[in-house]
């Protein structure tokens, strides 16, 4: 199908909005836009980070998901207590595939679920005593833990438990960092505020721990990788490239990361931000307090990787700059072969994306390297500054949708007819049943890594494997069947 | 009275960031910007204006300061 023109896209948005009652239509209209590269600022065309309308299907998460699931959860040598009823922790346990090295249950705890398992009694009488008790139990059962974080679920804020006081007391007793995080699920409009709260907790309870301690030997090439959650091994694929060009990666935030790495981060020379949305807060704080500059980079697809490596190297001396060129040259044969193999199979295919807070713009380059075109993109919980950065990445007249509802997304897809959709698990089966190839782009559909040159090869293979799978020819959807079945549908209706 | 995080970008221009509003904007002009005195009215590239209480000498960028919003530019 040919690309839609600007007018057609605008008409499509109007058509989709038609079904809503007036109030909802007015609100949703602000969240849907046609991309216009000439705009400098997104706030002229799109509104974001607002409360979702009641009654629509949204795929957003909560502040607890942002803090426990994204920022704190992957810190492997700490125990993260899901403080409150058992469900929040149990149903989100290990779902994000943040890989790590270590022996689970001995010195690492990433895929385990620790919860205070609130019952009625705890809601009525308060859960502080229970919290203190389970922290002692944790110390006894898992003595090799390096710290505890308390991830509040909704009831904690509602009943007003003083987890800060319990944390301070426990910190004195066990002599390890105990971090209370006020990430109750009802805070904010999406998981985005949870990221912010988690960043603030790191700032207040972790970052200063080694201030004034100069015992850590530093080099001029120390960097920290911030906002890489090592999904399917992403951070490892990124880290090897940085190390090959001569940098020393002191800390990984927070995929396969440790509390000791976080405490050492204020000693680095440069912070590298991959997921801007979830960790720009801490980078900005470190810039102000420790005068550590930060830059955003993008390790999806060879074009963006080379661009990013050169951008990072430009902030260091000539040895690193030469190192960057060496790395790019070293992998060229490898990624040229990947492109040569998959580009002919994927050329010209059109993709629609709807992911969290970073990938809607970051993966565009990787698709373009394979000759594919992203015709629609949107963020679950992006802010204005994310859309500012997206406008230039996307083609003109493409669709941009913020916090898209289930209904809108389906209608857009029916009309735009993309060859591939990249979104989350809740969308996956709907679109597969509609006969459209789908990749789950939150945790790489149980694959990965997708970062770095190694990841690009896997990314290309996965996209080809999904898109060119013969099964799609077997799926019969109502609007693609032959004439006889059309008659049958009409008769049935 | 928003808290504004100020820093200099690679071109030496002042970058204005208001965390609560996700506002990231380059400052066009700063009323007083000499080694002796800094502050006053700041005009952003989107047309909005903010006021900083003038201080003696340059602040140590990056820094967070309180600003008064004068004109939203809309």
- Could you say how many structural domains of chain A there are in total? 3
Which sheet architecture does the biggest sheet of chain B show?
7 strands, antiparallel
Tally of DSSP helical segments of chain A:
22
Dominant shape of chain B? globular
Known CATH architecture of the largest domain in chain A:
3-Layer(aba) Sandwich
What strand order characterises the main sheet of chain A?
A: 1-12-11-10-13-14
Shape annotation of chain A: globular
Helix count of chain B equals 0
- The CATH topology of chain B turns out to be OB fold (Dihydrolipoamide Acetyltransferase, E2P)
Helix-strand makeup class of chain A: alpha/beta
- Contiguous low-pLDDT stretches of chain A (5 residues minimum) are 484-493
Quaternary structure of the protein: heterodimer
Integer count of domains of chain B: 1
Distance between the termini of chain A: 28 Å
Q: How many whole angstroms does the radius of gyration of chain A measure? A: 24 Å
Structure commentary:
The complex is a heterodimer of chains A (493) and B (74). By secondary structure, chain A is an alpha/beta fold. Chain A has three domains: 1-60 and 348-493, Nitrogenase molybdenum iron protein domain (Rossmann fold, 3-Layer(aba) Sandwich); 63-210, Rossmann fold (3-Layer(aba) Sandwich), CATH 3.40.50; 222-326, 3-Layer(aba) Sandwich (Rossmann fold), CATH 3.40.50. Chain A has helices at 6-17, 22-29, 63-72, 87-91, 120-125, 128-141, 154-159, 163-174, 191-205, 234-244, 259-264, 276-290, 302-313, 318-346, 359-362, 364-369, 384-391, 406-416, 425-433, 452-467, 471-474, 483-492, and strands at residues 32-34, 79-83, 114-115, 148-152, 178-181, 222-228, 248-254, 270-273, 294-296, 350-353, 373-379, 399-402, 420-423, 438-440. Chain A has a six-stranded mixed sheet with strand order 1-12-11-10-13-14, sandwiched between helices. A four-stranded parallel sheet of chain A has the order 3-2-4-5, sandwiched between helices. A four-stranded parallel sheet of chain A has the order 7-6-8-9, with helices on both faces. In chain A, α4 links the parallel β2 (79-83) and β3. In chain A, α1 packs antiparallel against α18, α9 (191-205) runs parallel beside α12 (276-290) and α10 (234-244) runs antiparallel to α20. Mean pLDDT of chain A is 94; it is low at 484-493. By secondary structure, chain B is mainly β. Chain B has one domain: OB fold (Dihydrolipoamide Acetyltransferase, E2P) (Beta Barrel). Chain B has no helices and seven strands. Chain B has strands at residues 3-8, 14-18, 23-33, 37-44, 49-56, 63-66, 68-71. Chain B has a seven-stranded antiparallel sheet, with no helix packed on it. In chain B, β4 and β5 (49-56) form a beta hairpin. The chains are: A alpha/beta (493), B mainly beta (74).
């Amino acid at each position: 199908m040919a690309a839609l023109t600007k007018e057609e896209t605008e008409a499509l948005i109007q058509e989709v909005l038609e079904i809503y009652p007036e109030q909802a239509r007015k609100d949703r209209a602000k969240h849907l836009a046609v991309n216009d590269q000439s705009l400098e600022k997104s706030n002229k065309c799109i509104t974001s980070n607002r409360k979702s309308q009641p009654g629509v299907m949204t795929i957003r998460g909560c502040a607890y998901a942002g803090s426990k699931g994204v920022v704190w959860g992957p810190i492997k040598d700490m125990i993260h207590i899901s403080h409150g009823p058992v469900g929040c922790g149990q149903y989100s346990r290990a779902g994000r595939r943040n890989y790590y090295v270590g022996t689970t249950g001995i010195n690492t705890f990433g895929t385990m679920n620790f919860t205070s398992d609130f019952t009625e009694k705890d809601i009525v009488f308060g859960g502080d005593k229970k919290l203190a008790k389970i922290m002692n139990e944790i110390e006894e059962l898992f003595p090799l833990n390096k710290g505890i974080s308390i991830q509040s679920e909704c009831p904690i804020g509602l009943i007003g438990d003083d987890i800060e006081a319990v944390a301070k007391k426990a910190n004195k007793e066990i002599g390890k960092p105990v971090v209370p995080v006020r990430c109750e699920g009802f805070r904010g409009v999406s998981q985005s505020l949870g990221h912010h709260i988690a960043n603030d907790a790191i700032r207040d309870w972790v970052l200063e721990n080694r201030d004034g301690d100069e015992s850590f030997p530093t080099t001029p090439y120390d960097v920290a990788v911030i906002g890489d959650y090592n999904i399917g091994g992403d951070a490892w694929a990124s880290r090897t490239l940085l190390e090959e060009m001569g940098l020393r990666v002191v800390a990984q935030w927070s995929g396969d990361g440790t509390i000791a790495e976080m405490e050492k981060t204020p000693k680095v020379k440069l912070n590298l931000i991959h997921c801007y949305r979830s960790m720009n807060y801490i980078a900005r704080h470190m810039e102000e307090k420790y005068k550590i500059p930060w830059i955003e980079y993008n390790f999806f697809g060879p074009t963006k990787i080379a661009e990013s490596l050169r951008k990072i190297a430009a902030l260091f001396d000539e040895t690193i700059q030469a190192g960057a060129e060496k790395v790019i040259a070293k992998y060229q044969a490898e990624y040229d072969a990947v492109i040569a193999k998959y580009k002919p199979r994927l050329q010209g295919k059109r993709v629609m994306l709807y992911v969290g807070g970073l990938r809607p713009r970051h993966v565009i380059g990787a698709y373009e390297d394979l000759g594919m075109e992203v015709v629609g993109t949107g963020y679950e919980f992006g802010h204005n500054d994310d859309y500012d950065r997206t406008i230039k990445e996307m083609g003109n007249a493409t669709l941009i949708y913020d916090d898209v509802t289930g209904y809108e997304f389906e209608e857009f897809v029916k009309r735009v007819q993309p060859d591939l959709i990249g979104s989350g698990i809740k969308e996956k089966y709907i679109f597969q049943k509609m006969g459209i190839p789908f990749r789950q782009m939150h945790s790489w559909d149980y694959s990965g890594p997708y970062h770095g040159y190694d990841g690009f090869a896997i990314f290309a293979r996965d996209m080809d494997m999904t898109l060119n799978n013969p099964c799609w020819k077997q799926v019969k959807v109502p609007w693609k069947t032959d004439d006889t079945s059309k008659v049958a549908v009409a008769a049935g209706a | 009275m928003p808290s504004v995080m100020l820093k200099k970008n690679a071109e030496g221009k002042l970058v204005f960031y208001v965390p609560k509003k996700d506002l990231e904007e380059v400052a066009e002009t700063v009323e007083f910007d000499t080694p002796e005195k800094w502050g006053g009215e700041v005009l952003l590239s989107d047309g909005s204006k903010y006021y900083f209480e003038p201080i003696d000498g340059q602040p140590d960028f990056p820094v967070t300061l309180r600003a008064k919003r004068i004109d939203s530019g809309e």
